[in-house]
Design brief:
Largest sheet: 4 strands, antiparallel
Number of domains: 1
Number of helices: 11
Helix content: 25-40%
Order of helices and strands: EHEEHHHHEEHHHEEEHHHEEE
Oligomer: single chain
Distance between the termini: 24 Å
Strand content: 15-25%
Structural class: alpha+beta
Radius of gyration: 19 Å
C-alpha cells in the first residue's frame, strides 16, 4: 500500500506535525493498523496508511470528532464544563477520577488528559498547571475554544487541513500552534492583538489529539518543589522550546510514541555540542530519521499568551 499523501500538513510547522499525529491516532483508535512517514522534500508532508482514500480518511476523522463532544476531558466531571485546564486542586482530583473511570472503554480520554495536565503540578496560585503547549490566556479559554472546535469543525475543514491549500479564513478558535502565525507587534504598524485571528480549525482539532504523544509529568526540583515537565519541551515556562523528529520509514503508533519520547532525540541536552550532533546524526541515518526540528516557545509578559517561533533544523540525519 503506497499510502495517502497529505500535502496540507507541513512537517516543518508544529501545527502540521501535531495534526499528522492526531490523524494517525484517530485511525489507530478506529481499529485500523495505520502507519505514518514523511516525505523528504523542501516541504516535508506526511504519508498515512490506514484508509483507502482521502475521502474515507476524512469521514473517519469527522466521526471521531463527534465522539469527543461528550468527553469527560472536555466537559469535566459531572458536566461541570471547566473553562480551562487550570483547575483548583479539588476539581483536578475529581476530574482525574472521572477520566480514570473511562479507561474500561479505551485510553483515549486518559491519554489526552495526561497530555494536558498532571496531578501535583500547580502554578503560583495553587491551581493546576497545564502542558507547555498550552498557549491561550486571558479571555482565551482553552477548553471553551476546544469545545467549539468539537462542535463546529466539519469534513470541509478537515479537507482544507489535510489536502490544502490552507485558506486560513475561519473565525473558529485557533490554539496558536502554527509557527507561521505569530503576529509580532514590532513588525506591524498597529497592535495585532485587537484583530480576530483566523486559522485552519481542522488542523487545530487534529493537533489537539496529537498532543497525546507528548504527556506531562511532575519531577521534584531542587528544594522539593514539584515542576511540570512536558515531553519534548524545555522545562522553563517563559522561554521554552519544542523538538520533534521527521522520519522516512512507515512507523506504527507505538513505535512513534517511543520515538517522540526518546530524550536522545528531543531532550533538552540534544543541542549541547557538535560531537553529540555528529554521533546522533549517524544513528538517525541508520534508523531512517530525516532530521530533528526545533521551534522556540515564547510567552508574553502580559497574560502569558504563548506562540512558537520559526522552526529550524536542529540536527540533519538524511
Amino acid at each position: 500500500m503506497t499510502g495517502i499523501e497529505l500535502p496540507g500538513l507541513d512537517g516543518g510547522n508544529p501545527l502540521g506535525f501535531l495534526a499528522a499525529l492526531g490523524t494517525l491516532d484517530v485511525l489507530h483508535r478506529d481499529g485500523r493498523e495505520p502507519t505514518l512517514r514523511w516525505t523528504d522534500g523542501i516541504v516535508p508532508v506526511p504519508v498515512v496508511n490506514g484508509a483507502q482514500s482521502a475521502a474515507e480518511l476524512i469521514a473517519v476523522l469527522d466521526a471521531d470528532r463527534a465522539r469527543w463532544r461528550n468527553s469527560v476531558v472536555l466537559t469535566g466531571p459531572a458536566g461541570e464544563c471547566p473553562d480551562d485546564v487550570k483547575p483548583v486542586p479539588d476539581l483536578l482530583r475529581r476530574w482525574a477520577e472521572a477520566v480514570a473511570a473511562t479507561i474500561g472503554d479505551g485510553r483515549a480520554d486518559a491519554d489526552l488528559f495526561c497530555a494536558l495536565l498532571s496531578e501535583g503540578a500547580v502554578d503560583g496560585k495553587g491551581n493546576g498547571k497545564p502542558t507547555h503547549l498550552h498557549f491561550t490566556a486571558g479571555n482565551q479559554k482553552f477548553l471553551v475554544m476546544v469545545r467549539e472546535l468539537a462542535d463546529r469543525v466539519d469534513a470541509e475543514r478537515f479537507q482544507e487541513a489535510l489536502l490544502g491549500p490552507w485558506l486560513e479564513n475561519s473565525p473558529l478558535p485557533t490554539l496558536s500552534w502554527s509557527s507561521q502565525g505569530d503576529r509580532v507587534y514590532a513588525l506591524r504598524a498597529t497592535n495585532p492583538s485587537t484583530e480576530k485571528r483566523l486559522g485552519v480549525p481542522g488542523a487545530d482539532w487534529l493537533a489537539l489529539l496529537g498532543l497525546t504523544f507528548f504527556p506531562t509529568k511532575i519531577v521534584t526540583a531542587t528544594g522539593g518543589k514539584n515542576v511540570l515537565r512536558t515531553s519534548a519541551c524545555d522545562r522553563d515556562w517563559k522561554r521554552s522550546a519544542f523538538r520533534w523528529p521527521l522520519w522516512a520509514v512507515p512507523l506504527d503508533r507505538d513505535t512513534i510514541w517511543s520515538l517522540l519520547g526518546d530524550r536522545s532525540l528531543v531532550g533538552e541536552k540534544v543541542a549541547e555540542d557538535a560531537q553529540r550532533h555528529r554521533n546522533l546524526a549517524e544513528t538517525m541515518r541508520a534508523c531512517g530519521i530525516l532530521r530533528v526540528m526545533r521551534a522556540s516557545i515564547r510567552r508574553s509578559d502580559q497574560g502569558g499568551y504563548g506562540s512558537f517561533g520559526g522552526a529550524s533544523v536542529l540536527i540533519e540525519g538524511g
